[in-house]
Amino acid sequence: MDALIQTLFSKRQELLIAIWQHIQISLISLLFALIIALPLALAVVHHQRTAGFLRR
Fold it and tell me: In whole angstroms, what is the distance from residue 52 CA to residue 47 CA?
């Protein structure tokens, strides 16, 4: 266990960079999902035909 802690501590900067990159990728993915989902949700709310098509 000490070896793991030492490795994590010695590579702390690399680990923080990797975590930050992961957060950025996740947020970009979430943004793309919202860009796709929000217009679809608005179309369903305002157009009954669209809602019926998506419920099938």
Answer: 9
Whole-model pTM above 0.70? no
Does a structural domain hold residue 1?
A: no
Confidence of residue 56 (pLDDT cuts 50, 70, 90): low
Other beta carbons within 10 Å of 42 = 11
Domain, as residue range, for 28: 16-55
Distance from C-alpha of 41 to C-alpha of 5, rounded to nearest angstrom:
47
Q: Which amino acid is at 21?
A: Q
Q: Is residue 27 part of a domain?
A: yes
Query: Taking 80 as the threshold, does the pLDDT of residue 11 lie above it?
Result: yes
Domains of the chain: total: 1
